[in-house]
Amino acid sequence: MHAENLHASAVAIGEAGILIRGASGAGKSSLALALIGLARAQGRFARLVADDRTAIAPSAGRLVARPVPPLAGLIERRGLGLTPEPHLSAVVIRLVVDCGAEPQRMPEPEELVETLAGIALPRLQVPGRAGDERLVLAALALFAEAG
User: Fold this and answer.
1) Most buried pick, 19, 27, 95, 98, via CB within 10 A?
2) How many structural domains does the chain have?
3) Is the pTM above the cut of 0.85?
4) How confident is the model at residue 16 (pLDDT cuts 50, 70, 90)?
5) In this structure, what are the phi and psi dihedrals at residue 136, rounded to the nearest 5 degrees?
């Protein structure tokens, strides 16, 4: 099966990939950088995989994300434009984060799952504000325990 390109960013926290989706200006790049910074501050491995455009493809029952070649190793920093950032060439996605809309206080169970390329993944919605990275890392830990 061939890769599909999404308007999304992806980061690796430990061995777990987080796919961050949202409209232009929703805060995907800022959230990616905040996640990397917080995880590193906690002594965890964290690395950019892709920013703005991410290629996804199923592989052995898992969803793999990769950077789109022209943007590999680059991330947008507000006010600075595209800047270099150490990156990985691929990661297995474990969590989908939709950035830029106020989440429901008590989401229905079906709103906590997203199916991409035929693979069901846990889903979290965040407003796209400072502090979202703490909720995303907490959700990643929670879903890792449950799965």
Assistant:
1) 19
2) 1
3) yes
4) very high
5) -65, -45
Confidence at residue 105, expressed as pLDDT on a 0 to 100 scale: 87
Q: Tokens at residue 87, please?
A: 């990156």
pLDDT in tens, 63-104: 999 999 989 999 999 889 899 999 999 999 999 999 988 888
Give the 3-state secondary structure of the chain. Answer: CCCEEEEEEEEEECCEEEEEECCCCCCHHHHHHHHHHHHHHCCCCEEEEECCEEEEEEECCEEEEEECHHHCCEEEECCCEEEECCECCCEEEEEEEEECCCCCCCCCHHHHEEEECCEEEEEEEECCCCCHHHHHHHHHHHHHHHC
**CATH number for the domain that contains residue 11:** 3.40.50.300
CA distance 116 to 129: 25
